[in-house]
């Protein structure tokens, strides 16, 4: 093994801003969602929306174990035929959602008419088409091969997504990435398989409460490559107890040996009610420094190995074709989320079902959801209009390494980001986080700005979203 690459030296003075505050993968976060007054009907929410480039997401909230760092909406195991009942409910939900989408949409043969007015005077909505699909979790491959076939049938036959013609991304764990499941996924059109490895060092995996053996992980990666799914993504975590620059390099090199088209490097967070939160209280600056150091080493190593940085977490091998959603939600296209923990987005409303981290609460919510007879209404969510839409656009564009063309923002909103967010952008420029001090036609983060994505993002949250998140009681 070669010696670890030298990292960029740490700043002489400690950063004034804590770098690891919140992973902003969607804005607003689900903890800012609230019960929706009147539970609006989906057909009303989607009437008038463009539907010709929708994203489809199917959520499978089951895992074999609960990793110590995980606060995703998922439960351990699925006793007494629960997966079958869950798929039954998913099927009912898909039928209800598709009916709502079709209500008022153009019929086949009118595909080119996207903005017509119907007899009732309401704005037409164009055809219903899906541009990409993803199965996430939890662990979608917790399902058996037959159940995965059924999941694909729901996406294709109920929702009308042509899975073999669009990018389809699926998450898996090493133990569930079995040859029979992978064969089904490959045959049904999966273009990207994402596997959570976290660490190739067995002691670190144990420390993160994700017990696994490296030999089993390597075998799973071999099966995934044998299945010839075009894009392999490997998730790794830095900041684990006992992890060193050398052991981090061991994991990076073990992952690189598989030449994955994508790699995600995640900083470890210890969040309320997770397994690690019960064991440790990691809030000190030394841990911040460890994570920043490992991040910089990881980033520099991947760049030197021919990967390009897409965002703070995401790296793509040079020349690899993107086959799944990038590390951001599209700014303007709608999303249909099916399943108990999935979010859906219209242009004005983000909605989902109830959310929890505690295992007992998650079980209760899943049981209630699988018994739901009527999926025709949105029950929990948050409106994202006006100022919130501007924040979301800026936030999610700025966190991409390629940055945000100022003209795109102005075209969409009629004002510039500096007019709308003068104090925030001035603060980012003062800290050296913006190229050209933010003065150019492209608002783009410097390497240090990208390194501080998890501090920068939360600074763009609105006071109302902050208040809602602060009022949320973890359960
Ligand atoms: S396998 Fe993934 S979703 Fe499941 S508990 Fe672990 S990190 Fe969470």
TrEMBL record:
UniProt cross-references to PROSITE patterns, sorted A to Z: RADICAL_SAM
Annotated spans, Disordered: 102-128
Radical SAM core domain location: 48-308
SUPFAM superfamilies according to UniProt: Radical SAM enzymes
Pfam families in the record: Radical_SAM
Gene3D superfamilies, alphabetized: 3.30.750.200
Stretches with biased composition (Basic and acidic residues): 102-119
NCBIfam families: PRK08208.1 (NF006067)
Protein name: Heme chaperone HemW
């Amino acid at each position: 093994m070669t010696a670890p690459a030298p990292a960029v030296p740490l700043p002489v003075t400690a950063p004034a801003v804590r770098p690891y505050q919140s992973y902003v993968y969607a804005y607003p976060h689900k903890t800012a969602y609230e019960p929706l007054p009147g539970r609006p009907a989906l057909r009303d929410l989607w009437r008038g929306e463009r539907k010709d480039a929708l994203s489809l997401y199917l959520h499978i909230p089951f895992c074999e174990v609960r990793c110590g760092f995980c606060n995703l909406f998922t439960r351990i195991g699925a006793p007494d035929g629960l997966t079958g009942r869950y798929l039954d409910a998913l099927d009912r939900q898909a039928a209800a959602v598709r009916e709502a989408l079709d209500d008022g949409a153009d019929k086949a043969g009118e595909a080119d008419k996207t903005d017509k007015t119907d007899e009732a005077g309401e704005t037409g909505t164009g055809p219903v088409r899906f541009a990409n699909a993803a199965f996430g979790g939890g662990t979608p491959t917790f399902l058996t091969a037959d159940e995965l076939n059924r999941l694909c049938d729901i996406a294709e036959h109920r929702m009308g997504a042509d899975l073999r013609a669009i990018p389809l991304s699926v998450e898996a764990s090493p133990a569930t990435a079995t040859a029979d499941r992978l064969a089904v996924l490959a045959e049904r059109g999966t273009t990207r398989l994402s596997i959570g490895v976290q660490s190739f060092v067995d002691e670190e995996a144990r420390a993160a409460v994700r017990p696994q053996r490296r030999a089993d992980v390597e075998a799973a990666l071999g099966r995934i490559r044998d299945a010839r799914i075009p894009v392999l993504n490997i998730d790794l975590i830095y900041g684990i107890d006992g992890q060193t620059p050398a052991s981090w390099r061991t994991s990076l090199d073990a992952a690189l040996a598989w030449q994955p088209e994508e790699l995600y490097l995640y900083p470890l967070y210890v969040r309320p009610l997770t397994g690690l939160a019960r064991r440790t209280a990691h809030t000190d600056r030394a841990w911040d420094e460890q994570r920043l150091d490992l991040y910089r080493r990881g980033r520099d190593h991947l760049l030197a190995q021919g990967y390009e940085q897409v965002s703070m977490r995401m790296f793509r091998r040079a020349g690899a074709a993107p086959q799944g959603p990038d590390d951001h939600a599209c700014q303007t296209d709608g999303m249909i989320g099916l399943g108990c923990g999935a979010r859906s987005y219209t242009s004005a409303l983000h909605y989902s079902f109830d959310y929890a981290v505690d295992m007992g609460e998650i079980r209760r919510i899943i049981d209630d959801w699988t018994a739901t007879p009527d999926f025709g209404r949105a029950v929990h969510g948050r409106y994202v209009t006006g100022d919130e839409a501007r924040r979301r656009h800026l936030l999610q564009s700025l966190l991409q390494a390629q940055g945000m063309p100022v003209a795109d923002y102005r075209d969409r909103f009629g004002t510039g980001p500096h007019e709308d967010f003068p104090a925030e952008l001035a603060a980012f420029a003062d800290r050296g986080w913006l190229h050209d001090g933010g003065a150019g036609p492209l608002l783009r983060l410097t390497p240090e700005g990208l390194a501080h994505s998890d501090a920068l993002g939360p600074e763009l949250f609105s006071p109302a979203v902050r208040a809602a998140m602060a009022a949320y009681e973890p359960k």
